[in-house]
Design a protein that fits this description.
It holds the Pfam family F-box. InterPro entries: F-box_dom (IPR001810), LRR_dom_sf (IPR032675). With 409 residues, the protein is α/β, with parallel strands linked by helices. It contains 16 helices and 14 strands. A 12-stranded mixed β-sheet has the order 1-2-3-4-5-7-9-10-11-12-13-14. α13 links the parallel β9 and β10. The longest helix has 16 residues.
Length: 409
């Protein structure tokens, strides 16, 4: 039975890879229509990288189909030392084509030299870097598990060749059409451990990608002991960090570098405090009131009772000036000091913006503190000025039960 190409195209988009391969063998038309879906999401097999590079250099139209790349278990230097990795050097003629492809990319001479040497040495890092450069329409880059020192990799170097945004402020007209990685809007970096974790400020080439909008990081280091090499602005609008180390200096730098930030979510883990980490709720509050005025979502969360709050006696202070904020999720102590024992505690309804749609707090299991929290939330709930408020709840850490959510609506 004959089906229009539009229907066949929609079928191809919704097939799993195994089914898609069978579909592509059904006819010449099916083969042609399957190509965009087959190449849209790449998770390269490190044992066959040269074959993939050969395909993309010989058939650049297939490289143009790529929308997301997953670099699974990205341990570039470890892989490069393993002779058994499996990907054999191609013949000299094919290798020369890859050299020519690298030299045609308008990269700096230093990066081109690293690419050439890496390709000649059968470097996984260099092959992945060339792969990224060959895919002009890639929108998402994911590194589900990375090793130490990825900031020294060729992959990170080529990402830095995209060109920074001007120091005068973030671009309001979208990324320039002549920039590399102009479609790359989302990056995920999951580090394997906080011990020796990659310092986020060493990953400037990612944070300052010209079109980046979303950064997801796991076990990254945001300590303020390091700084960006030059003052620049990032177009990032959403950041989600889990089990990452951050202090007051790093927090302020992050907000300054991302003036268009709309959503910031930090899920603390048991390794949130390193030996050099100093976090102050007062400093966090000051930075928010100064640099976080465009935020629409702010979330600090923990899976543990009290996590590191016993170290923090201060309060963020009022966040009412964050007039665009719609979602707020914070530890109770961050607003009212350690265990809420302020001499004259402020009223929560005067500390949070009236634009909120969702308000969630996390509180210790202490009965008195829990009662204070409920009272404060009830006042917000019953205040007619919070016309958009739909969610009011708190999370209490019950001994032996873990976190329990209590809905106040």
């Amino acid at each position: 039975m004959y089906l229009p190409e539009e229907i066949l195209h929609n079928i191809a988009k919704n097939l799993e890879v195994d089914q898609l391969l069978k579909f592509s063998r059904a006819s010449r038309t099916c083969h042609r229509l399957a190509q965009p879906a087959l190449y849209a999401h790449l998770k390269p097999d490190y044992e066959h990288l040269y074959a993939l590079l050969r395909t993309l250099t010989d058939q650049p139209e297939k490289a143009a189909f790529v929308r997301s790349i997953v670099l699974d278990h990205f341990y570039p230097f470890e892989y490069d030392m393993e002779e058994s990795h499996g990907d054999k050097l191609p013949p000299t003629e094919e290798l020369s084509k890859l050299f020519a492809a690298a030299e045609s990319l308008s990269l700096t001479s230093q990066v081109v030299d690293r690419l050439r040497r890496g390709l000649q040495d059968n470097s996984t890092d260099a092959k992945l870097a060339l792969l990224l450069c060959l895919c002009p329409g890639v929108e998402s880059l994911s590194m589900p598990e990375t090793a130490y020192f990825i900031q020294d990799s060729v992959v990170i170097s080529v990402l830095g060749e995209s060109g920074p945004l001007p120091v005068s402020g973030p671009s309001r007209d979208g990324p320039s059409t002549d920039r590399r990685f102009q479609s790359l809007t989302e990056v995920q970096i999951n580090h394997a451990d906080t011990e020796g974790s990659t310092h986020a400020f060493a990953l400037e080439s990612i944070i300052f990608l010209p079109a980046i909008k979303t950064l997801n990081g796991h076990m990254l280091d945001f300590l303020g002991r390091q700084r960006f090499s030059t003052p620049r602005y990032s177009s990032i609008r959403e950041i989600k960090l889990t089990y990452s180390i951050i202090d007051s200096g790093g927090w302020e730098q992050l907000l300054i570098a991302c003036p268009d930030l709309r959503s910031l979510s930090i899920e603390f883990g048991d390794a949130i405090l390193g030996a050099e980490c100093e976090l102050s709720w007062a400093s966090v509050g000051t930075s928010l009131r100064t640099h976080g005025l465009r935020l629409e979502k702010l979330s600090f969360e923990s899976e543990m009772d009290n996590f590191f709050l016993e170290e923090l006696d201060e309060s963020m202070g009022s966040l009412s000036s964050l007039s665009l904020l719609q979602t707020l999720n914070l530890p109770y102590d961050s607003l009212f000091g350690r265990t809420g024992q302020m001499a004259h505690p402020q009223r929560l309804k005067d500390m949070v913006p009236k634009t909120l749609r969702s308000l969630c707090l996390q509180v210790d299991s202490d009965p008195e503190l829990r009662e204070q929290c409920e009272k404060q939330l009830r006042e917000v709930r019953d205040d007619s000025r919070f016309q958009e408020l739909q969610v009011v709840r708190y999370t209490v850490f019950e001994p032996g039960r873990g976190p329990v959510q209590v809905d106040m609506r």
